[in-house]
């Protein structure tokens, strides 16, 4: 998560001027907006709780965001997001350890898989796309997959079993790994990703999207410069094609791209999205922004997030969409909360950032006013 240069106010002013207000005869032409993107969604965390960036995941800390397991009403949240906001995608982070019962050489733990699957089925039940995200930072208890830690075969075995379980579900998306970082050898990491892709396809999940993450916490900004783009470009399906192999990129809007500050300081366009869009177009590939977010009621976030989403929508040939961080089991008041508040009587209220920028329906409203 290297520090980036902060865009100057002057530069941002220029970018704002670059999208002129619609002339009267254009007023009925909606501006590009979230609804133009194929996938718009929210992360529903909980099964990843207890994991740190070293891939240590404390046993007993996974916290299902489901009321039947004493968690938040993740199922109700997703239903609200689909019905009221017109989202169509949820990302469902889970600790690798949880899936295999905290022993890396284990097969999938049927008890734990059934609990996680309750969230997946609740997601599928809304009609949305559901991203199965192993939230381990390319690691298991501090050691890197294929580079001193678990073998590629062990990693592939988990994915083979998950893919066999979900192979008939066209709306499952396989998120191979959350936020690899400090990867000593990116070529070797691409080999680990290849092992997962091959395992998923050979298990019978031949059509679904698979998300390929680079290093630097899957940074959209560093994807090219850190070698992730070149290395991951070699990952192929068993038939040699790149069909539905999509790059997984993250980007926050705070001062150090950490997603820990409430203030947003950038729309990421100049430093991240624009160069990435050019690279993707040149190389005939696509990316999906599966984590982004900002302070839920920060005036900077309300500006910059809307700008980021509008830019992604303008470039929907190469950007498939975004997934906000986060709802699920986070607490009301969490700095990046996208938690809707359940008012009872089936009424949910969204935080301002979701209401005004992130919800696809908010984009429709922007479009209708030409913003
Ligand atoms: C699943 O893992 C848990 C630990 O999380 C363990 O107690 C349980 O025995 C395992 N169950 C199966 C069916 O492997
Ligand atoms: C997938 O569909 C096939 C064909 O209908 C069926 O035989 C198989 O049991 C299904 N597998 C799963 C995991 O649901
Ligand atoms: C990465 O690993 C590959 C394959 O073992 C090796 O050829 C290459 O030299 C390594 N690169 C670095 C930078 O260590």
UniProtKB/TrEMBL annotation:
Is Repressor set as a keyword in this record? no
- Gene3D superfamilies named among the record's database cross-references: Glycosidases
Q: What is its EC number?
A: 3.2.1.4
| Annotated TM spans | none
One record GO biological process: cellulose catabolic process
- Which residues belong to the signal peptide in this entry? 1-18
Q: Which InterPro entries match?
A: GH, Glyco_hydro_5, Glyco_hydro_5_CS
Q: What class of enzyme is it?
A: hydrolase
Q: Which UniProt keywords apply?
A: Carbohydrate metabolism, Cellulose degradation, Glycosidase, Hydrolase, Polysaccharide degradation, Signal
* Domain Glycoside hydrolase family stretches: 69-327
Which family is this sequence assigned to? Belongs to the glycosyl hydrolase 5 (cellulase A) family.
Record-given protein name: cellulase
Name the species this protein comes from.
Mycena chlorophos (Agaric fungus)
